[in-house]
Amino acid sequence: MTTLTVFCARSMTQAVNRLAGDFMRESGHRVDITFGPVGTLQAKLTAGETADVLVLGAPAMAAMETQGCFVAGTRTDVARVSIGIAAREGASAPDV
To answer: How many CB atoms lie within 10 A of CB 30?
Structure first.
């Protein structure tokens, strides 16, 4: 049985946990996921830690590809993350 090491941005926790569960059931392999802020995961890689799979935002992936943190040309965009903005009752709406 193989164990895949995954570094994943926290914003993708729910989706990646579900995918990992499906993958483990179907393949019999294990998945060891480290969730964290992108900067923390980048620091781990810079310090010499390794991962089989990276799930990070496009800007971080582009920078890391340029730095040689993973094999150039192997990056694939697979998802988009939406961000919402809200204001509490009585507050002015943000100008975005």
So the answer is: 13
